[in-house]
Amino acid sequence: MRRKELRPCMLRQLTIDGYPRLASSKTMTMLCTRCLRAVRQQLRRFSTYPPLLSSAPVLSTPITKPGEAPPPTEPPPARSICVAGTVLTGLNFTKGGKDPVAMKDEDYPEWLWSCLDVIKTKSDKGNHDAGDEFSKSKKTRREAAKRARALEAAGGLTAPKIPVQRQSINLPGEEGGSVEDNIDAIYKREELRKAMRKERKAKIKETNFLKSM
User: Fold this and answer.
1) pLDDT tens, residue by residue, 111-121
2) Are the C-beta atoms of 140 and 129 separated by less than 8 Å?
3) pLDDT tens string 173-207
4) Where is the composition biased (Pro residues) (predicted)?
5) Which candidate, 161, 166, 152, 159, places its Cα nearest to that of 195?
6) Distance, CA of 193 to CA of 213 (rounded, Å)
7) Residue spans of alpha helices (H) in the chain
8) Which of 23, 82, 212, 213 would bridge with 102, disulfide CB 3.0–4.6 Å?
């Protein structure tokens, strides 16, 4: 037997003299069932609407599935040539102390990696090479000697300070000279002797230090 649907005329019969009449349980069941069906259809239409499905945001990073290991990340390049824990033999300068041990790169301060970086312009590089008398390039040595001669001829404070033991000039003093010239020659020879002795001591210390490494 088909169920009867509620019509407006039937709803009007539920009220008498302005007071609502209690509906039967059968009528309430029909109303609730129809309402639930209508809500389900609207929800299904909303969830399967194509523009809403296509407008889902695309993630820039891939999502790993449960149980799947994340992609490996590349470690930063090593900045030090010594592996952490390496004993730096010969770098101890305290009496009775131990040689230092290399640490990890992140344990050192950031300024340490750039303290030796020098920004040189083209003119600065040219001036530096021009003053290098011990360069491997013959042309550079020739330019350095020419520049040194020009500074020496100009005189003044800009002239290079050449140590006494490396000068190629003759010492003062002649046979039959005056007493003042002879005294001046004695002082110059004594100055040369002290400078050469000091240089020999420094060279011996350097040699002994290099042998102990």
Assistant:
1) 888 887 766 54
2) yes
3) 777 778 888 888 888 888 888 988 999 998 898 88
4) 68-77
5) 166
6) 31
7) 8-12, 25-47, 50-54, 122-130, 138-154, 179-212
8) 82
Handedness of CA 109, 115, 116, 119 (dihedral sign): positive
Question: What pLDDT band is residue 44 in, cutting at 50, 70 and 90?
Answer: low
Characterise 109 by phi-psi region: left (phi > 0), alpha (psi -120 to 50), beta (else).
beta
- Cβ atoms of 178 and 171 closer than 8 Å: no
Rounded Cα distance, 181 and 184, in Å: 5
Q: Which two tokens stand for residue 3?
A: 């169920």
Distance CA 148, CA 89 (A): 40
Q: Supply 188's token pair.
A: 């110059």
Q: Which helix (H) or strand (E) holds 15?
A: strand 15-16
Task: Name the phi and psi angles at 199, rounded to 5.
Answer: -65, -40
Give the CA distances from residue 110 to residues 79, 83, 105, 114, 115, in Å, rounded to whole numbers and listed in that order: 11, 18, 9, 8, 9
User: Would the pTM count as exceeding 0.90?
Assistant: no
> What single-letter DSSP state applies at residue 107?
G
